[in-house]
Amino acid sequence: MSKTTDPLEIKLIKRFHQALADYQLLEDGDHILVALSGGKDSLLLTELMSRQMRIHKPQIKVSVAHVRMENVAYESDSSYLEGFCSRLGVPLYIMTTRFDRPSVKQTTRQKPPCFLCSWNRRKQLFNLAQELGCNKIALGHHQDDILKTTLMNLTFEGSFSGMPVRLKMRKMPLTIIRPLALCQEDDIRAYARCHQYLEQKKKCPYEHETTRHEVNILYNQMQGLNPEARYSLWHALEKSGKLIG
């Protein structure tokens, strides 16, 4: 693998490797299933994991999965994803699933569509991972995702928790890892633009039905008040043992 001189790429690779080391995300013999949604974060994750596979220390195997939701117009170009993975030398598995959106009368007692969509996608990933003999699933959440989830949980659930960087599942022999946990979204966005990652054909139609937009505003206000706020919150998560589960 040729060395890069691009400062942004060097920064992202450094933080990727730091997360791998700090949270002990990889071990020799791991077979990792990378969840590729088609967005900038999962594209970068796939690229970095394929590079890591060629380093051989530790020696790992990487497979990639893309789950399409049959009844949600939230699409990525399958041919682009196939070409992307082919160039990286990693196998891509494309699956299709669906969920039934609850009616208006049901919404007070049933989960919202975003939860149902995510749950069904994860179910497909878990099943494929076990079929392929994978012991870990890599998700493309970056540091901003984890911090915003923490704010959501504090605001709406009264609990101080985010998304662990490493989480060992209790009911199946799988571990969830988030190797982009120390990468910032602005850096990933800039990298995706420079490397001309193809944007998703359609955005999720339910993305404005959640409270995430309001939390994004709160998150930006927090950083406006104190540019070091993200690091303070991250340190609090680390200190409380919330990043390893």
Helix/strand order, N-terminal first: HEHEHEHEHEEHHH
Residue share in helix: 40-55%
| Spans of at least 5 consecutive residues with low confidence | 104-108
Number of strands: 6
What strand order characterises the main sheet?
Answer: 3-2-1-4-6-5
Count every helix, treating DSSP H or I runs of 4 or more residues as helices: 8
Helix/sheet category: alpha/beta
Instruction: Tell me which oligomeric state these chains represent.
Output: single chain
Large-scale geometry: globular
Would you state the CATH class? Alpha Beta
Q: Can you walk through the features of this model?
A:
The structure is a single chain. This protein has 245 residues and is an alpha/beta fold. The protein has one domain (7-239): 3-Layer(aba) Sandwich (Rossmann fold), CATH 3.40.50.620. The chain is built from 8 helices and 6 strands. The protein has helices spanning 7-22, 40-53, 78-88, 113-132, 143-156, 185-194, 212-225, 229-239; strands spanning 31-35, 61-69, 92-97, 136-138, 166-168, 175-177. It has a 6-stranded mixed beta sheet with strand order 3-2-1-4-6-5, sandwiched between helices. β5 (166-168) and β6 form a beta hairpin.
